[in-house]
Amino acid sequence: MMTLPYAEPYKIKMTEAIRTSTREEREAWIREARYNLFKLRSDQVTIDLLTDSGTGSMSDRQWAAMMTGDESYAGASSYFRLKTTVAELFGMPWFLPTHQGRAAENVIFSALLKEGDIVPGNSHFDTTKGHIEFRRCHAVDCTIDAAADTQLELPFKGEMDLAKLEKVLAENPREKIPCVVLTVTNNTAGGQPVSMRNIRETAELCRRYGVPLLMDSARFAENAYFIKTREEGYASKTIKEIVREMYDWADIMTISAKKDGVVNMGGFVAMRSEELYKKAMSFSIMFEGYVTYGGMSGRDMDALAVGLDENTEFGQLDTRIRQVRLLGDLLDQYGVPYQRPAGGHAIFVDAKKVLPNLPKEQFIAQTLAVELYLEAGIRGVEIGSILADRDPETHENRYPALELLRLAIPRRVYTDNHIRVIAAACRNIFERRAEITTGYRITFEAPILRHFTVELDKIR
């Protein structure tokens, strides 16, 4: 008897037209955008892999929940429904909604950080590092060294290096370290997960030194999926059970709910300490809005409450991660190098290995990103030297060990045929990589988070 093939646990109810462009059009558009893919218009993009943040397709239950949204300024029932979901799922009793993840960081770091502080973590993502350095504090990377070897196969490649972390904790006064940030999954390292063992051991180390553990939680559900499928002792546990255990070790959490909450806009900060909540509350009111809506409408809070419930079920996560793995499997067939194993939300192509002769000063991953757009109208994002920004003290460009082109797959948006187009385009570039001999130089950059608005010129 034939084993039935895999099928997605949903059916498609609405479609959105995609415009296919010519190479000549794309050459003109990317030149007008000053070779910054963020500056492209969406209708100039065929397959958009810039981010999986806020770009997913919501479910029928989420759309229905939006109709029950309570838009009261204070005390909205939508707020209390989301508050209950957060408390049940994460075990965090104190909660402030925000309009997205960087807003949650702004609120909590305003309450926690002071100039000169040190914030260790496992590869702080761009906005996290931006908020830390904007406050003249120092983000110290304590990721395991293995994360820098893209071809090394490890089940939990995004983990905190406990020896590095303890060195930071031991060598600095307690009052200089307001928190430790643990990012799950580790986006900068390639969407790589963190094991429950590493979460527990990081938390125990933090408790020994009296430092709160803050979990950056944008892709918490994907991290729980990898714990279930890769870590001994968790195969029989539900995703919700694993999530609750993960957060039993955390003191604070921030989240961009636009990822694993599968909403177009939203986030929150939650914590165990009522004292910290009261301190953060003032910044929430100043920056976001009153405590029972923050930066979110009632309808968005209701959609998020449903999204958090739905996306902590195995079937939804399995479908999503299978599609990311399909892209990785196809790139394996074509010999295109990427951060292995395939991550939870994206494939991170190793730009240094694709373009080994391009000088780092010419922004290797950005060069590859532009080539992919020119090849097939596919928009990815550079996770490399442009995103790494300049050192806040020396003002020299930082050149990270990894130069990656992130291809982030939106949830429930593209079919497997789109994935095959992406893989074929990557193959075409890889086969003509010897022809790509020059990259780009910066002509304009903002003093912080420059990658969003940077302008470049092609080196002739």
TrEMBL record:
Enzyme Commission identifier(s): 4.1.99.1, 4.1.99.2
Where is the Aromatic amino acid beta-eliminating lyase/threonine aldolase domain positioned along the sequence? 48-424
- Keywords on record: Lyase, Pyridoxal phosphate
One matching Pfam family is Beta_elim_lyase
Which segment of the chain is annotated as a signal peptide?
none
Gene3D superfamilies listed in its UniProt record: Aspartate Aminotransferase, domain 1, Type I PLP-dependent aspartate aminotransferase-like (Major domain)
Q: Which residues carry this modification: N6-(pyridoxal phosphate)lysine?
A: 259
Which protein, by its recorded name, is this?
Tyrosine phenol-lyase
List the source organism: Alistipes shahii WAL 8301
